[in-house]
Amino acid sequence: MSAVLPQFDCLSSAIREMNSNFPRPTFKIEVGKEFDLQSDYNNLSKCFSNKVGVYILFNESKDIIRIGSSIDDLYRRLNTYFDYKSDDNIVGVGWWKEGVGSRYIRVIEVPGSCSFEALAIEHFLICKLCPPLNKEGKLKYLDYRKSMLNELDRLSALYGWERVSKSWYTA
Hints:
4 strands, 171 residues, 4-stranded antiparallel sheet
């Protein structure tokens, strides 16, 4: 039986816990508004350039599939996950194994002077939520990873990349 992937309510609960048990001295942890990769992809730079913090990637069903951080520029980090092409079937689609299946992004912005806090927040959330595309969630969500193989094969053929190794989706 497949494990249920974490969703926004799980994220909200983890953030409430962190704010209560481990308050940041200079800011409160808050999740930003939803960014839709399919409709807003061309605004990725405008929305995330020169910002630091934690990003949360969601799939079409709004399940959390990956959590990461950037301590210098969220746009540059996020842009490593997604490809820009004029083909409507490709623009804004999460690519390769780290971001495959991404549709939405939410960000926890951290003040630049506290960029180190992004790493602590990221670690806390990954440990609490174990998203399937983070190594911490791999074993729990092998079925989800296997379900992404057709898309990864399509992307491998499209870009001429090597196919994903079996270790990505097996124990």
